[in-house]
Design goal:
The chain is an alpha+beta fold. The chain has one domain. It contains five helices and six strands. Strands 1-3-4-5-6-2 form a six-stranded mixed sheet. The two termini are about 20 Å apart.
Length: about 130
C-alpha cells in the first residue's frame, strides 16, 4: 500500500540547521533503528551545511502535517508541524538520507550540489 504524500507548500518560517541540531526534541516515534539512522545521517552533513528548503507535507498521519527540512547535503529532517510550532524544534519524527527520487517528489528544483549528494548517498547504499 502506497503511503499518502502530498506537498501542501513551502514553509515560510526560517528553520536554522544549527538550532535544529542543538535543540531537537524527538517524538516517541524515534525508535532505536531511527536513532541509528540519525547518527548515520549526521555523519553525512557538510561542515557548513544549511537547510535548503522546508516543505509542509500531509502524509495522512493522525498526528497531522509534517515539516520536511531538506539540507543542502540531502538530509531530510521530518518534524511534526504542530509540535514544532508549539515548542520550537520539538517533534522530530525521523531523519532520512535522501535519494534523488525522494527529492523529486517535492516538485522543487534543488541545487545541483544537493542532487549530486543524493546520488552519492544512493551509490554508497546509505539510504536503504
Amino acid at each position: 500500500m502506497m503511503r499518502k504524500f502530498c506537498v501542501l507548500g513551502e514553509y515560510d518560517k526560517n528553520i536554522s540547521l544549527d538550532e535544529l541540531l542543538d535543540n531537537l526534541k524527538p517524538t516517541k516515534h524515534m525508535e532505536k533503528e531511527r536513532l541509528e539512522r540519525y547518527d548515520d545521517a549526521l555523519s553525512c552533513l557538510d561542515d557548513y551545511d544549511r537547510i535548503e528548503k522546508v516543505f509542509i507535507v500531509d502524509t495522512g498521519h493522525r498526528d497531522g502535517e509534517e515539516l520536511h527540512c531538506i539540507t543542502h547535503s540531502g538530509i531530510i529532517f521530518i518534524l511534526n508541524r504542530k509540535k514544532h510550532e508549539a515548542v520550537s524544534y520539538s517533534g522530530l519524527v525521523t531523519i532520512l538520507i535522501a535519494r534523488v527520487g525522494q527529492l523529486e517528489r517535492y516538485g522543487y528544483k534543488f541545487s545541483e550540489y544537493t542532487r549530486i549528494r543524493a546520488i552519492q548517498h544512493q551509490n554508497e547504499g546509505l539510504n536503504f
